[in-house]
Amino acid sequence: MRRLELFSQLGLVDKKIDxxxxxxxxxxxxxxxxxxxxFFHLAIRWRRLRNEVKGVExxxxxxEEPEVVRREARLLFENRFKATHDYxxxxxxxxxxxxxxxVSRNMIACFSExxxxxxxxxxxxxxxxxxxxxxxxxxxxxxxxxxxDIMEAMHSFHASGSFPKGC
Length: 167
Hints:
This protein is mainly α. It folds into 3 domains: about 1-50, no CATH class; about 55-85, no CATH class; about 110-160, no CATH class. Helix content is about 60%, strand content about 5%.
């Protein structure tokens, strides 16, 4: 009975010492960073040894042969990430709303001048100007002059899917 208590206490002390070393390692890491030092290599070696898979249990027997460990690890991940066509979801007779063909075509069509103008006119015009110095009141007042440049930018966006930086 006394022996079990001593082993239990030894295990607790071992965990405390291990925790203390980990904390010291973290402090040194924060203090010295990632420099290529003896400490750095010791920390990496300690972590590698701690994370190393020494063996696996195969058919109720412990095995440490590297080939067997590799094979079992590969089988474990192959089984875990095996693609299946059955997702386990059954929607029954649930129907989802879908877009009509006309709406689908409108979603990918180029922007018309009327759509762009309507979107600009719906924006509050007196808000603070953008980084370029123009607010929507300016754009609305100068629409006849600016519309060709704005439409060119919209067509460029439609073709590429992105605005240039700064827009």
